[in-house]
Amino acid sequence: MKAMLSKAASEGYAVGAFNILDYNSIKAVAQAAEETNAPVIIQTSAKTVIFWGAAPLISWVRELAGSSSVPIALHLDHCKDLDLIKECIDSGWTSVMIDASSKPFEENLALSRQVVQMARPKDITVEAELGAIVGVEDDIHVKEQEAHLADPEQAVRFCREVEPDCFAPAIGTAHGVYKGEPKIAYGLLEEIATKTAVPIALHGGTGLADDVFKKCISLGCAKVNISTQLKYAFIDGFVAYHEAHNTQYNPLKVIDAQFNELKAGIIEKIKLFGSAGKA
Ligand SMILES: [Zn+2]
């Protein structure tokens, strides 16, 4: 993932990181990437890894992406559990995110540093978070009033001491579905991206307007996470097919409809992020 993000940051586009749920959604990400000739990140939540186990997930990814003509990374999204991070590193994930952002600054810094020291000898990329990204993702709940943006001075010290390959500062985006117009702190994003010189990950991508994505990418976001949108596509693609053919009980057609719904949304985002043709 590190090489993908360095190239994206220097060429001014972003790599999409799409949260998968199962074999069908992994296939949708892999095929969307191939059809657009784009680098892509297959992202798993900690919950998804616990649900299936690391072994089946890694075998599906190897089967579907192992011989791909485009670069595909496998990334562990928001993880607070060092044992799970270690398990994913040992199982074949190419990058991991340590999310110790709910801890006090010094503790976040120490834990994030520990993960970098665990991952670097194995050439595994590490993403770390600073500040509180509002919303609900996995089992991390951040009450809106407790949310705080990343402090630029802390961000500089954090990146200097932790040396993450990818940095996720809270800049005003939120996980889940936006209830109002998100207030993105563009000045803060620009300042942090410039001062740290680390590729920035944009969390809470679902529901942002196209020009918001483009502006964030132009200011230093080299990785854009898309999760909630795919949860909707996963369920809506399935349900819509059945509602339109409610006397037909052919599961493979339903799975195929779900796959097409997922793939179409992923292709749209890959093109919007500017990563099409960048493989
Ligand atoms: Zn996130």
Please characterize this protein's 3D structure:
With 279 residues, the chain is an alpha/beta fold. It contains 11 helices and 10 strands. It has an 8-stranded parallel beta sheet. A two-stranded antiparallel ribbon has the order 6-7. Helix 6 packs parallel to helix 7. The model has no long low-confidence stretch (mean pLDDT 94). Bound molecules: zinc ion. Zinc ion binds at residues 78, 133, 137, 175, 203, 225.
How would you concisely characterize the structure shown here?
By secondary structure, the chain is an alpha/beta fold. The chain has eleven helices and ten strands.
Descriptive keywords:
279 residues, alpha/beta, two-stranded antiparallel sheet, 50% helix, 17% strand, binds zinc ion
- The total of helices stands at 11
Order of helices and strands: HEHEHHEHEHEEEHEHEHEHH
- Helix percent reads 40-55%
User: Strand arrangement, largest sheet?
Assistant: 8-5-4-3-2-1-10-9
Identify every distinct bound molecule in the structure, by name, code or SMILES: zinc ion
Q: pLDDT average, as an integer? A: 94
**Shape from CA axes?**
globular
Computed structural class: alpha/beta
Distance between the termini: 13 Å
**Unreliable stretches, pLDDT < 50, 5 or more residues?**
none
Largest β sheet strand count, sense and barrel closure: 8 strands, parallel
Beta-strand proportion:
15-25%
Count of beta strands = 10
Evaluate the radius of gyration.
18 Å
